[in-house]
Amino acid sequence: MKPSRLGLRPLTQEAFAPFGDVVQKQGHRPEEINYGQTLKYAGLADIDIVESGGEPAVHIYRSEPIDLPFRVEIMECHPLGSQAFIPLHNRPFLVVVAPPAEEPMPGSIRGFITNGKQGVNINRGVWHHYQLSLGEPADYLVIERGGPGENCVERQLKDPLIIENLELEIP
Amino acid sequence: MKPSRLGLRPLTQEAFAPFGDVVQKQGHRPEEINYGQTLKYAGLADIDIVESGGEPAVHIYRSEPIDLPFRVEIMECHPLGSQAFIPLHNRPFLVVVAPPAEEPMPGSIRGFITNGKQGVNINRGVWHHYQLSLGEPADYLVIERGGPGENCVERQLKDPLIIENLELEIP
């Protein structure tokens, strides 16, 4: 059976709200600090990492670009904490997520494309594919939970999906 | 009296060690994850934010560039937590720091210039100038302590310093 197509939509705070935060200046009112030298866009991500003795961990992930069409076959979630991906580049990337559940539910999986500036902070328990870079190798700053406990669950999708191209499909 | 000149040195992990972490891939051995798609450079910043009911806070700071020569007159420190600045741009910026003490001690102030990719995580209690961008307005991801308590102390330098130009001066 041919896998179903996973459509992509533009990443917006509103559309992404069930899954986490879009880390961006847009839509936030800044405060002027440092004698007017700096605009502070405050509190852009709900970093949720203290569960079970957790502490913040900061990594850089360097990811190879994917080829299209791309088969979405595996998703993971972190039951003990949030995970933020901030692009250290200026190119769009793909974010594939599904709401918290025992398994990623068919029909609930969503695909987003960033605008090249946006980062994401994925809520605890939200299913997601590992970061999907486009075009060339890309670096991301990752802010997640470090510490004791089993914090990564991976599932093979019973019905894989396919991202055919970068055409937008907004339902 | 003409202010003394503050020399600049290239930012390296070794030179910056008394003040915090340089957030960069260089010098770290990555681990392969995500079925080989990703290199993970782990644990790049010691995020120290739990003191007195603190929690991690994520902001974007947009800072106007400085003009050179620039007078270093004011420094601040955060007695309750670390503060990380990750550039969301690819240009060098300046980092001016001094070791923890009651006041920034004359003669102990150091000026660094980043390589355009590096971020910094400034240790709790380390005196620092607010971020000094060069050339054009620049965005930084900031990871710091949020929560109760007085976490910013500012001091006027008795003997201001001057950054005359971007020439490197390595003692």
Descriptive notes:
The structure is a homodimer of 171-residue chains. Chain A is built from 1 helix and 15 strands, in the order ββαβββββββββββββ. With 171 residues, the first copy, chain A, is mainly beta. Chain A has one domain (4-163): Jelly Rolls (Sandwich), CATH 2.60.120.480. In chain A, strands 2, 9, 10, 12 and 13 form a 5-stranded mixed sheet that branches. The two termini of chain A are 24 Å apart. Strand 6 (55-63) of chain A pairs antiparallel with strand 5 of chain B, so a sheet runs across the interface.
Task: List its traits.
homodimer; 171 residues; mainly beta; Jelly Rolls; 5-stranded mixed β-sheet; 5-stranded antiparallel β-sheet; globular
Q: Measure the end-to-end span of chain A.
A: 24 Å
Overall number of strands of chain A: 15
Oligomer: homodimer
Q: CATH first level of chain A: which class?
A: Mainly Beta
Provide the structure class of chain A: mainly beta
Which pair of protein chains has the largest interface, and what are the residue counts? Answer: A-B, 42 and 42 residues
**Considering the protein shown, what is the CATH homologous superfamily of chain A?**
Ureidoglycolate hydrolase
Annotated CATH architecture of chain A:
Sandwich
Mean pLDDT of chain A: 96
Let me know the largest β-sheet of chain A. 5 strands, mixed
